[in-house]
Amino acid sequence: MTQTEKRDIIPGTDIIFADRGDAENEAPDDVVLIPQPTSSPDDPLNWSATWKTIIIANQFIFVFVSIMTPMAISPMTLIFEAEFQRTLPEVNMLFGAAAITLGYANFIIVPAANVIGRRPVVLVCGIVCILANVWQGLVTSYPSFLGARVISGLGAAANESIMPMVVADLLFLHQRGSSMALYFWAYFLGLFIGPIISGAIASQISWRWFFWVCTILQGASLFFLLFAHPETKYDRPPLKAPVSNAPTIMDVRVPDPTFGKLGDGLISSSSSEANIRQRPLSPPQHTAITASQHSTNGRPSRAQFSLLPLRKRLRFGHGYDRDPPQSLAAVLARDVISPIKILFCYPIVLWASLSMGFAANSLLALNLTQAQVFGAPPYLFTPDQIGYTNFAFVAGAAVALGTAGPLSDRIALSSARKNGGVLEAEMRLPALIPYICANLVGMVIAAVGYQRAWPWEAIVIAGYSLVGLQCVGIPAVAIAYAVDSYKSLPGEIMIAATIVKNTFGFGMIFFFNDWAARSGYIPPVLLLMALTCGFSLLGLVVFIPWGKQFRRWTKDSKLHSL
């Protein structure tokens, strides 16, 4: 039996290095490309590095700007209490209304992005954000403000899912760790920088001007999306399985380089990259395209800049089958049900969602208590000074940006070399360890520092920086692991994770501040620390040895061929 036959290839297990002898001596150029690109220059996987950088930069700006407005009001809490004559929990509801909408709106946004494309959806969401910002700048009553916050969350919800989908459209498996870290950095940078901006503007000018500034920034982002963000959704048809009695393995489709050039492409879903087919055994070097063989000189076609969903259909080249068409209703039902199914039936996705949710809500715990702690004696910070404490979160997140993705990619590729060129999704999980430690230390410093009125320098510089580090690092590694395991579902995984994160965060606004006032800061803050560290460590203990078995249980699911 050959080495290839012995390999247990299931979703989440990939032959990442070409089998040319000693895997220990393989160069990075021998990485097998997953998913395998077509020969069409319209295929986003074939676009030049310049175009990929432009698109990811556009997504970065959109995520940063659109999340900043709904999530940046914590320094203005005292102002809103006085302006609208409301209690602290009622003012926190302004945050909660946007947060809960951010999560559940993706039940609309992700199916829409899968059916009509990423570009139309992100443009519509950008317009909604602009209109909501104008409304917030003009509100004169609390109910109106609450309504504007809901609409703001609806428009901003695209930042929770579209960029991970675009990353999966544009990049190969071994390139995604760094870009997922960049996504989480953009997301949390908006959370960190937003309060700095809102606090400074509210103190120096007016709180309303914060929303006018956000309107201007969102307009600039919409301009860039309109003119420099083509459609990245693309159908890569599965290989036709030749009739043969030869032994077969389960493998990700790998087109033969001798196939004829594909015709004009639509531009439909690259989330279907993990179409699984039975195929005869053949030497990998004759079928799989490696990084050293791949040319990235393509560019978007004019059709990919259309404002409307593309209607063209791919003219399949030699060797391909056309899948049976699905009705629009069936596609929408599938996309709505899939996130719920994977959340409750796939332990890996449930764990990744909880790990991301608790890590992100560790940050929320400190955001909710910032004004409560630093606006009172002995600190007596002004709104802009409260906002400036978020610079520490930014510093920690910047370190995570430079370490989380590259570290997890490096650990995974190194382990794959030692494993004969076979990459298992679990190989990136050890990268979680430093970020779990950061959460433990940072949250303890913040909780004890709050309670005992330590100097603000200790709380902010040490505690906040470490929390900023972990809130990018843990989600980047955990979500990358889930996407590696279920490559066809990046958008659905982000819906599941966002629902967990935002539902828990929404619940926190009803009890967290009152609990801290009643029992002190140590119990509520350390609860978030325990949940984050506990669930993250549970993943290491369970999934490193047995993660492949969990993936094997779900390997025959129809979700792999979406």
For this entry, give a set of tags.
globular, 562 residues, 62% helix, two-stranded antiparallel ribbon, two-stranded antiparallel sheet, disordered N terminus, mainly alpha, 4 strands
Task: Report on this structure.
There is one protein chain. The strands form two sheets. Strands 1-4 form a two-stranded antiparallel ribbon. A two-stranded antiparallel sheet has the order 2-3. It is built from 18 helices and four strands. The chain is mostly helical. α2 (49-71) packs antiparallel against α7 (142-156) and α9 (176-204) packs antiparallel against α10. Helices cover 62% and strands 3% of the residues.
Give a short account of the largest sheet. 2 strands, antiparallel
Give the low-confidence spans.
Answer: 1-5, 20-29, 239-286, 311-322
> What is the average of the pLDDT values?
81
Strand content: under 5%
Write the layout of secondary structure elements.
Blueprint lengths: L2 H4 L6 E3 L33 H23 L5 H8 L3 H17 L1 H10 L2 H21 L3 H15 L5 H9 L5 H29 L2 H22 L19 E5 L23 E5 L47 H18 L1 H28 L8 H6 L2 H28 L3 E3 L8 H20 L3 H30 L4 H30 L2 H32 L9
Q: What does this entry show, briefly?
A:
The chain is an all-alpha fold and 562 residues long.
